[in-house]
Design brief:
Largest sheet: none
Number of strands: 0
Shape: elongated
Radius of gyration: 21 Å
Structural class: mainly alpha
Number of domains: 1
Length: 181
């Protein structure tokens, strides 16, 4: 494969594009895994909750069911976030390449988008697995705040940066219909 024909910005974003594609494949893989193993996943979540039924849930099966239902929702949320964030990251990195952004900013934006999307998707999956054993989705999210905050923050800031760069490009270039005098 000849990557020399890529713009410098797109070439620099290849690492981020790889992370974005991994994120998309993670989401697709989760979907396939869900389709083939939904009962096994739900059984794993319930087993985790049953281990702490008396200590954490105090025998309250209704409370345990709420956490189990929310845990499954978190699994689906991970799948959906991976698909959407991976695709968004990929598209934004193509925009980075088309804008001709210098190498280092393109590399950093690509990493923030690609790793941010993957990390945040993993956060939701991990929170879903942790919640039944902790007795609370809130406790699971709090225990993984160290992953959620930086990855979602990187993704949002990089998205905002690309938007600003697009606006700058839009308003700084002459329109195709204007001609120099």
């Amino acid at each position: 494969m000849n990557t020399s024909s890529l713009t410098p910005g797109l070439h620099a974003a290849l690492v981020g594009l790889t992370f974005a594609l991994l994120t998309i494949m993670f989401g697709q893989g989760m979907g396939i895994f869900f389709g083939l193993n939904e009962d096994a996943i739900k059984h794993r979540l319930k087993s985790s909750a049953m281990e702490v039924r008396e200590t954490i849930y105090k025998g309250n099966d209704a409370a345990m069911k709420v956490v189990l239902d929310n845990s499954w929702t978190y699994m689906k949320r991970a799948h959906l976030h991976a698909g959407s964030m991976g695709t968004t990251a990929f598209a934004l990195m193509i925009a980075i390449g088309l804008l001709g952004i210098p190498r280092v900013p393109a590399l950093l934006l690509g990493l923030a988008l690609g790793a941010g999307g993957l990390g945040y998707s993993l956060y939701w999956m991990w929170a879903g697995f942790r919640a039944p054993g902790l007795g609370s989705t809130g406790a699971a999210k709090e225990s993984l705040k160290w992953l959620a905050m930086p990855t979602s923050g990187m993704f949002v800031l990089a998205t905002l940066t690309v938007f600003i760069l697009l606006l700058v490009a839009l308003f700084s270039r002459p329109s195709p219909t204007s001609r120099p005098s």
